[in-house]
Amino acid sequence: MPNGEILHVVQEDVMNGLRTMFSPDGKPEEAVIVNPNLDDGVLIGNEKLAAVPWIYSCIHDGQFLGMFRTDRRLKIHGVTFVDNRRGETLMHRYVDWMGVANQLGLEVSTRVPVDQAQYRKVLSECDELDKDDRGGGSP
Q1: Any idea of the CA torsion for 80, 81, 84, 85, to the nearest 10 degrees?
Q2: What is the average per-residue pLDDT within 7-15?
Q3: What domains does the chain contain, in order, with CATH numbers?
């Protein structure tokens, strides 16, 4: 598959996969571009297996993770691997969802890493508190 055809297939894949949440901003044929920081005009890989780092310029005009549309303009980053090794084209699309969440003003919380013993201890303490709340614990 020639370079231009690989890029076209990736552009279609990105827009078809994301357009229910994020519509192209401007002309659809210009919405997905090869990431300029990684584009030196040479295909990453070959015609059988290639990686295409892309940026999708879009508008958040659909639901995303239960979040209502914001109509914000976003630049979604990702990479798609195009695999032609078995006679049919397979696409493996990876999206920087943390970047999307950040652009939408969402925060992602995490918990402090704990080992298994610490985790079980906290669960046990929570179970005891639940029993107390139901009147089943010791006075």
Answers
A1: -170
A2: 93
A3: 3-109 (3.10.450.50)
Residue range 74-90, pLDDT digits in tens: 999 999 999 999 989 99
Q: What angle do CA 47, 51, 57 make, to 5 degrees?
A: 125
Q: Which tokens go with 22?
A: 């994020």
Q: 81 CB contacts (<8 Å, ≥6 apart)?
A: 49, 50, 51, 52, 91, 92, 94
- What does the alpha-carbon distance between residue 108 and residue 94 come to, in Å, rounded to a whole number? 19
* Per-residue 3-state assignment (H helix, E strand, C coil) for the chain: CCHHHHHHHHHHHHHHHHCCCEEECCCHHHHEEECHHHCCCCCEECCCEEEEEEEEEEEECCCECCECCCCCEEEEEEEEEEECCCCCCEEEEEECHHHHHHHCCCCCCCCCCCCHHHHHHHHHHHHHHHHHHCCCCCC
pTM of the model: 0.75
Rg (CA), the chain: 23
